Amino acid sequence: xxxxxxxxxxxxxxxxxxxxxxxxxxxxxxxxxxxxxxxxxxxxxxxxxxxxxxxxxxxxxxxxxxxxxxxxxxxxxxxxxxxxxxxxxxxxxxxxxxxxxxxxxxxxxxxxxxxxxxxxxxxxxxxxxxxxxxxxxxxxxxxxxxxxxxxxxxxxxxxxxxxxxxxxxxxxxxxxxxxxxxxxxxxxxxxxxxxxxxxxxxxxxxxxxxxxxxxxxxxxxxxxxxxxxxxxxxxxxxxxxxxxxxxxxxxxxxxxxxxxxxxxxxxxxxxxxxxxxxxxxxxxxxxxxxxxxxxxxxxxxxxxxxxxxxxxxxxxxxxxxxxxxxxxxxxxxxxxxxxxxxxxxxxxxxxxxxxxxxxxxxxxxxxxxxxxxxxxxxxxxxxxxxxxxxxxxxxxxxxxxxxxxxxxxxxxxxxxxxxxxxxxxxxxxxxxxxxxxxxxxxxxxxxxxxxxxxxxxxxxxxxxxxxxxxxxxxxxxxxxxxxxxxxxxxxxxxxxxxxxxxxxxxxxxxxxxxxxxxxxxxxxxxxxxxxxxxxxxxxxxxxxxxxxxxxxxxxxxxxxxxxxxxxxxxxxxxxxxxxxxxxxxxxxxxxxxxxxxxxxxxxxxxxxxxxxxxxxxxxxxxxxxxxxxxxxxxxxxxxxxxxxxxxxxxxxxxxxxxxxxxxxxxxxxxxxxxxxxxxxxxxxxxxxxxxxxxxxxxxxxxxxxxxxxxxxxxxxxxxxxxxxxxxxxx
Length: 730
What we know:
Layout: H1 11-23, H2 28-38, H3 43-50, H4 54-67, H5 86-95, H6 106-113, H7 117-126, E1 137-139, E2 145-147, E3 150-158, E4 161-168, H8 187-202, H9 215-229, E5 235-239, H10 254-257, E6 260-263, H11 270-284, H12 286-301, E7 308-311, H13 332-350, H14 355-362, H15 366-378, E8 382-384, E9 399-401, E10 407-413, E11 417-424, E12 429-436, H16 443-460, H17 462-467, E13 468-475, E14 479-480, E15 485-486, H18 500-508, E16 512-516, H19 517-529, E17 537-542, E18 546-552, E19 555-557, H20 567-575, H21 592-602, H22 613-622, H23 626-650, E20 654-658, H24 664-678, E21 691-694, H25 701-715, H26 722-729
Parallel strand pairs: 5-6, 10-13, 13-16, 17-20, 20-21
Antiparallel strand pairs: 1-2, 3-4, 3-7, 4-5, 8-9, 10-11, 11-12, 14-15, 17-18, 18-19
């Protein structure tokens, strides 16, 4: 052990040390350590007398010798929160760790939360938690509130104040010995709930107290809950200084007077305490809890203007539709969701990032990044990668998306076939199925086929059934994207006003989205392309037809009705293909596959008419057959004129070309013709160089993009804005 400094304190220094100690009781031990040193007491004797460890005595002596009284001040460890939200600690305890561990050990949870083992043990003692698999807790309110089998009854929230209403439900007799049987809900469900409520924690307002005009709503909620619940009594856990409203004021009355009030201390936040109640309810009454929690999370996500008032629906009752919210610039709940999605997007684009790198890229504070990543790790959405040495200091731990945390089904409806894929969160294709369609297939039979294929994909893998977020469908336009209705698309006989989304959602029982095929391909390119596709770009989708999708200002551009990107009309106007009335005429080359086959046949190339005719033509071009090469170049030159119009219109510098008509053997022919045109004809060609690149997706671009659209809708960082609220209302 190195030599410790010897102290020779003057009378003035000793008096300053004693005054410093008297200011706060927790300073007494540190002051006595220094006074012992000045008196010549050994480290071992001082440690034994004061009841602390020898390293503790040595550390405080060294710090005083180097820095004086300033060295005796507590400094939080790097990366650990100076103030602990104890309710958040208990909610994480109850949520449990990712599989295969059934419960947290104290040390593992402390490391996960970034707090000391001693601090965690103290929190557990205050809340009456004996270990990581707790079945009951005691809220350290005034007075304390034991929770065994709580039932959540209601929530009132305004500014930084909140009231949680709950009651005990002794619906199961207590067994001999007083032990309560725990019936754990699925761990994934508990962690997902904890993460969702964690978002509300990040959005809690910091305004000073509730406005007076918000209190009548609390009184009315108390009266309603008290009258509906009856015995045993209702408990109200109050946060932010709110107290019981006066009887008879704003709806208060005898029912409200029967409520027992509990005041929460500053070290427990209302969203995390709400999470604790929900975790216990989910553990002991999982069936009844599911509907209540779904209604609660809908109310939190709806961004209702203050005060937020939620009452638990009666068990067995149908859920009420969320209350329409008034348009706002943006709301706090949307901001928290935005920040969480911003972290997800940053990690997805980079592949893996440490917490420090996330803060640097997003501009979020380290505390916000720590909270968000902790929620995402708890919900098993992120995983820690191998540690990267980062020079001096603690090595950085990269975080990455867990590929199997979620998946989506993508379906591309083409006039000739149905293509279906199952895609994981990182873009891996888990399953792929193709079904040729007979000519003139009717909507009912096609929807039956889609349903059967989706069910087969789910049945083939338990992972798919457990983590499926939804189904995305890519279709040719025109369509009403908001309603999910397909309006008489070309090459589809009898497909007029087909409610595709509603029909599939009803049969599959999962959320369904509908996109134009070109728009879906652009979303897939953005999601799968990660860092290579972070800027603005236009996706030129070539298949049975030709369309364009665009990513502008960080989001996909769909247009008002979801029909943006009618590429064929640009080609028609550019080439002067007009109808007698002056409108855009049909351009054969905007059906690239059939047009290339027709041109090659006219040049004398023949092959058996079979489903593989286009593949045979591509193989002939790749082998150098002049007639096949010429056919593709003629199609590409016409398409390139439309691409010139898109480039001039949107002033973009990246053009992606993909789709079934552009497989690898002929991609170079398309890219060379299009690149030459978009860098020669536009008016601003001297100011910008347009990069034309082949799609990172394969011929299943639309199907993969449809699945990616489900991820994009769930995880892309976007704020709720005034304009979007008005558009939804319209």
